[in-house]
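Input sequence (70 aa), recorded before submission:
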Amino acid sequence: MDVKTWMKFEEHFVTFGILGLILYMLFIIYRLAKESNAGKFGYFVLFLALGLGFVGFIAKIILVEFVLKK
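Predicted structure, token format:
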């Protein structure tokens, strides 16, 4: 396996791995809100505050794709 192929594999593996962790974190936030009997506003605040961290990661992926395509 050459270096270029390995780098592509590694890039995809890391991206999908982190996206999998993000989905798991969303599940944890949902369970936290459900178990604390948060209302609609509580769900919103929990997802906004705790989910804002990985929005930057997703935005970075999108921006890098657009910049590198040009």
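Checked by second reader. The mean pLDDT is 85.
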